[in-house]
Amino acid sequence: MLRLGFPPLLALVLGASLGAALPQGTLKKSCSLSKYQFLLPHELKAVQKMKEQFEDIMLLSDRKCNTRLFHRKWNTAELSVPDRVMLVEAELDLATAMLGLPATPSFAETRQRPLAFLTQAREDLRDCMATEAPLHQPSGKLRHWLQKLQTAKKTETTGCLEASAILHLFQVLNDLRCAALREQCT
C-alpha cells in the first residue's frame, strides 16, 4: 500500500478540490487563428456571391461616396502581429455592423453566411487580443488609420460605410489571413 505523508496528501486533496471548484470557463482560451490562414472555398464563394449581389444593388442606386477608408499607404504585412490583429478586429467590427443593417429579404439571406463567418472571426480575434496582447498600444500607422475609421463613422453616411465595407471584404479577408500568420505575410 502506498503511504503518503501529511504534506503530499494535503497538496493532493487541495489540488483535486480546487480543480473541481473552479468552473471550466474560467481558464483562458488559447489564441489560435490558424484556421484563418487558408479560408474554405465555400466561405469565399459566399462572400463573392454577396459582394456581386451588392454591386448589382449599387448599380441601381445613385450613391456617391468619397470614403477611402481601405486605401492605405502601407501594407498590412508592415505591421507587427498585435497591430495586424487590432487592424482586422476594427475592420471586422465595421463589416459585421454593416452586414447587420436591415436589407431587402434576398440580400439579407445572401449575407447570413458571410456575417456568421466574420462574426466568428471577430470573436476569435478578440480572444487573442485578450490573451496575448491585452495592453498593446497600436503603432503610429495603425493609430492614424483607427482615427480615420472613427472620423469616417461620424462623417460618412451609413450607405457609404456599408458600400466601403462590403466592396473591400476580400481585403479584410486577406488582412485576416495575414493576422493569422505569425510571421511575415505578403
Features of the shown structure:
cytokine activity, antiviral defense, mainly alpha, 186 residues, single chain, cytokine, IFNL3 protein, Growth Hormone, Chain: A
What can you tell me about this protein's structure?
There is one protein chain. Residues 6-28 have low confidence and may be disordered. The chain is an all-alpha fold and 186 residues long. The chain has helices at residues 6-21, 41-60, 81-99, 105-110, 112-132, 140-155, 158-167, 169-180. The chain has a single domain, classed as Growth Hormone, Chain: A (Up-down Bundle), CATH 1.20.1250.60. The longest helix has 21 residues, at 112-132.
Spell out the blueprint of helices and strands.
Elements (H helix, E strand, L loop, with lengths): L5 H16 L19 H20 L20 H19 L5 H6 L1 H21 L7 H16 L2 H10 L1 H12 L6
